[in-house]
């Protein structure tokens, strides 16, 4: 029971802390649609399963012990975030283009964006590996550990779906879309900032 409470508490605190996932869901909900935001949230939850899977099969221990491998993951994640951020920073004012400034995302693209944003997020790598190595006991049954992983994934989906629903609400969205190019640039700047911070902090875990 103490282990379960620890997993739930740490997961909830980690999920609601600001990061690339929050920026991406918020941006897609505001700039695109509620559907795009929710699908991005679902993709984030699926991305969590990548971290859970390699941790359960033992690769997480390798990542924890190998600094170069961890830094390689961080660098890949940093490059992806900077790439997304630069695309957003290039957003133009509504008057400069036709009415639909932001190109729509297909359902698969929205899901993929959320998935990659989380799967390449070293913050989630640190969280999952640390949780299973430090909190979950070695003698905890595999079925229970899989249950923990499923809970972490569902918690991400639930939280970010709530974020998507809030930021795609009519009143909020209508007011903010008037300055949508600035919103896009702001979130682009955040993602570039996250990416740069990850790239610079290569020696720490």
TrEMBL record:
It is a multi-pass membrane protein. It is found in: Cell membrane. One of its GO terms (cellular component) is plasma membrane. GO terms for molecular function: amino acid transmembrane transporter activity. Keywords: Cell membrane, Membrane, Transmembrane, Transmembrane helix. This is LysE family translocator. The chain crosses the membrane at residues 39-63, 68-86, 146-170, 182-201. It comes from the Bacteria. Pfam families: LysE (PF01810). Its main location: membrane.
């Amino acid at each position: 029971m103490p282990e379960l409470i620890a997993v739930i508490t740490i997961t909830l605190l980690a999920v609601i802390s600001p990061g690339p996932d929050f920026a991406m869901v918020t941006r897609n909900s505001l700039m695109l649609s509620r559907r795009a935001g929710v699908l991005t949230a679902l993709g984030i939850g699926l991305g969590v399963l990548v971290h859970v899977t390699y941790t359960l099969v033992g690769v997480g221990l390798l990542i924890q012990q190998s600094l170069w491998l961890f830094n390689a993951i961080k660098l890949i994640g940093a490059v992806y975030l900077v790439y997304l951020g630069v695309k957003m920073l290039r957003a133009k004012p509504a008057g400069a283009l036709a009415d639909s400034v932001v190109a729509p995302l297909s359902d698969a693209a929205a899901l993929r964006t959320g998935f990659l944003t989380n799967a390449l997020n070293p913050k989630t790598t640190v969280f999952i590996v640390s949780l299973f190595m430090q909190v979950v006991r070695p003698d905890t049954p595999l079925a229970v550990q899989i249950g923990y992983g499923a809970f972490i994934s569902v918690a991400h989906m639930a939280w970010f779906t709530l974020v998507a629903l809030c930021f795609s609400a009519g009143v909020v969205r209508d007011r903010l879309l008037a300055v949508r190019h600035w919103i896009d640039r702001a979130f682009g700047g955040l993602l570039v900032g996250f990416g740069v911070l990850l790239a610079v902090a290569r020696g720490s875990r």
